[in-house]
Amino acid sequence: MGMENLKWNRPDQLEDLLCELVSWDSRTGTVGEVEFSTRLLKKLLELQYFQEHSSHIHFHDAGKGRNAVTALYNSGLTNKTIVLISHFDTVHTKEFGAGLEELAFQPRQLTEELKNRMADLPEDAQEDLASDEYLFGRGTMDMKMGLVLHLHLLERANAEQWPINLLLLTVPDEEVNSSGMRAAVKGLVELKEAYQLEYELFLNSEPSFSQKPQDPNYYIYSGTIGKIMPSALFYGRETHAGEPLSGMTSHYMASYLTRAMEFNSDFVEEEYGERTPLPVCLQQVDLKEDYSTQTSHHSAALYNVFLMRQNADDIMKIFKDTADRAMAECLKDYKAICEREGVQPIGNINVLEYKELLAYAKGKIGGAEVQVILEDIMSDKSLDERQMSMLISDRLLLHCQDLAPAVILFYAPPYYPAVNSSDNELVQEKIALVQKVLLEEFHVEAKQVHYFNGISDLSYVNYDKADSGWQSYKENTPVWGKTYSIPFKEMQQLQAPVLNIGPYGKDAHKLTERLHKKSAFHYTSRALGKVIESMFSLIEA
Question: What are the phi and psi torsion angles at 351 (to 5°)?
Answer without folding.
Answer: -115, 115
